[in-house]
Design a protein that fits this description.
Elements (H helix, E strand, L loop, with lengths): L2 H11 L17 H16 L14 H14 L10 H13 L23 H16 L5 H21 L20 H16 L6 H13 L25 H14 L5 H13 L15 H15 L3 H6 L8 H15 L16 H12 L12
Helix pairs in contact: 2-14, 3-4, 3-5, 3-14, 4-5, 5-6, 5-7, 7-8, 7-9, 9-10, 9-11, 11-14
Length: 376
C-alpha cells in the first residue's frame, strides 16, 4: 500500500470530505502528453550531477534539486521503487547532507555561505523541505528514514524561527532579513510545512496560522496578493496585487483544506482576469514569472476539476475547469519543449532549464495524483 493510499485512508477515516473535490484516484495521461513528459523526465535524469544535485550553473542547488526531485516523484517513482528510484535517492541524500546541524542555523537545508545560495537561501530551504517531506513516506530503509525524519523536524523548527513577526518569510531568515517578508518565499515555506504535516512531522499550529493570516492581510480590495506586507501591520496597500503570488496563495490554502475561505474566491476571480492559460508555445501573451505562476495555478485548477468552479461560485457555467486548462496550457507547453526534452525557461524567474523543465513535468503529471500536497 502506497503512502498516498495510507494518507487518504486516515483522512477519510475522520470523515473529512471536501466541498467540491473529485475522487482522489489517478487519471490516465493521454499519450500525446505522456511522450513529452517522458522526454522531460529523461532530460532531468541526464542532467543530474554525480553528487545527486541539480543546479543552474552552480546557482540555487537546493531549490533546483527540490524541484527536479518533485518532478520525478510525480511520475510515481519513490526512494524505494520505480524508474527514477536511484535518482530520487541520490537527491534525498544530497539534501540531507546539506542540512545544517547546530549553531544559529540548526535545521537550515542549505549553506548561506555558498555564493550560489547567499541572499536567497530560504527559497532553497522551502523547496528542499517540500521534496524531502514528499519523499519521506516511502523510505523503507529504517536507518535513512530515521535520519531523514530528524532532518525534517529540525528544518520545521528552523522555518518557524525564520518567520517574520508579520507571519511571512523573506529570502533570508528573520534575523538576517531584518524581520522583512515577501509573498513568494512565504508560500514556499507554507507548502513545505504542509507536506511535513502530511508526512506526520510535527508542525506547530501557530506557525501555520500566522502564515495564513499573512496571506489574508496581503490581499488587496480587488483580490490580488501583494509582493510584501511589510512591518507596518496596516494591511495590503491599494493596488499592486500580483498574479503569481495570488495563484500561489490559492494553492497554499487548497493544500491545507481551506477551500471555503472567502479569500480563495477573491483570489480566483483576480487570477481569472490576470493569468492567461496558454502554454509557453501557445501564442498567447506571457507573464513575467509565468512558470512560477503556473506551478501554483495548475494544482489549484486541478483541485477544482470540472465542477469545482460552479460549486464555489454557485453558477451554472464553469469559467475555469481542469479540462479547459489542459487543452490550452498543455498544448502550448508541448510545442515549446526543446528537441532534447528540456524547456529553456523563457519567461521564468531566470533560473534556467532545470527549473523550467521540472515545473512543466510537475504540472503535466498532476493527473497521476501521487503527492498529498498536490492531490484532490
Amino acid at each position: 500500500m502506497s503512502w498516498l493510499h495510507r494518507w487518504l485512508g486516515v483522512i477519510l477515516g475522520f470523515g473529512i470530505v471536501t466541498a467540491f473535490a473529485s475522487q482522489a484516484s489517478a487519471e490516465p495521461i493521454p499519450e500525446k502528453y505522456q511522450k513529452h513528459i517522458d522526454l522531460g523526465l529523461e532530460w532531468l535524469k541526464n542532467n543530474q550531477a554525480k553528487d545527486g544535485s541539480w543546479s543552474a550553473n552552480g546557482q540555487n542547488p537546493m531549490s533546483m534539486t527540490g524541484m527536479a526531485g518533485l518532478a520525478l516523484l510525480c511520475e510515481g517513482s519513490t526512494v524505494a521503487q520505480g524508474k527514477y528510484r536511484d535518482n530520487i535517492r541520490k537527491a534525498v541524500d544530497f539534501l540531507v547532507s546539506r542540512a545544517q546541524k547546530g549553531g544559529g542555523r540548526n535545521g537550515l537545508i542549505g549553506n548561506p555561505d555558498n555564493p550560489g545560495e547567499t541572499g536567497r537561501y530560504m527559497y532553497g530551504h522551502g523547496f528542499a523541505l517540500l521534496f524531502l517531506a514528499s519523499a519521506y513516506g516511502e523510505d523503507q530503509d529504517k536507518e535513512s528514514r530515521e535520519k531523514l525524519r530528524e532532518v525534517l523536524k529540525r528544518a520545521v523548527e528552523y522555518a518557524g524561527s525564520a518567520q517574520s513577526s508579520q507571519g511571512g518569510w523573506f529570502y533570508t531568515s528573520k534575523t538576517e532579513g531584518h524581520d522583512s517578508d515577501e509573498g513568494s518565499v512565504t508560500v514556499t515555506q507554507m507548502q513545505a510545512l504542509r507536506a511535513c504535516r502530511d508526512a506526520g512531522i510535527p508542525v506547530p499550529k501557530e506557525i501555520v496560522t500566522k502564515g495564513y493570516d499573512y496571506l489574508k492581510k496581503s490581499t488587496t480590495v480587488d483580490g490580488g496578493v501583494v509582493y510584501s506586507l511589510g512591518r507596518g501591520g496596516m494591511g495590503a496597500p491599494a493596488g499592486g496585487g500580483r498574479p503569481a503570488l495570488t495563484a500561489a496563495a490559492i494553492a497554499c490554502f487548497f493544500a491545507s483544506g481551506n477551500y471555503n475561505d472567502e479569500n480563495v474566491k477573491k483570489w480566483f476571480k483576480f487570477c481569472e482576469k490576470s493569468i492567461p492559460i496558454t502554454g509557453p508555445g501557445g501564442g498567447g501573451v506571457r507573464l513575467g514569472f509565468d512558470e512560477y505562476t503556473h506551478f501554483y495555478y495548475a494544482p489549484s485548477i486541478y483541485f477544482l476539476g470540472e465542477d469545482g468552479w460552479k460549486k464555489m461560485f454557485k453558477t451554472e457555467i464553469a469559467s475555469i475547469t481542469w479540462k479547459k486548462y489542459k487543452e490550452s496550457f498543455f498544448e502550448g507547453a508541448c510545442r515549446a519543449q526543446g528537441a532534447d526534452g528540456g524547456w529553456t525557461g523563457t519567461g521564468s524567474w531566470g533560473a534556467g532549464p532545470i527549473y523550467s523543465t521540472a515545473v512543466y513535468c510537475v504540472i503535466m503529471q498532476l493527473d497521476n495524483n501521487c503527492l498529498p500536497v498536490f492531490t484532490r
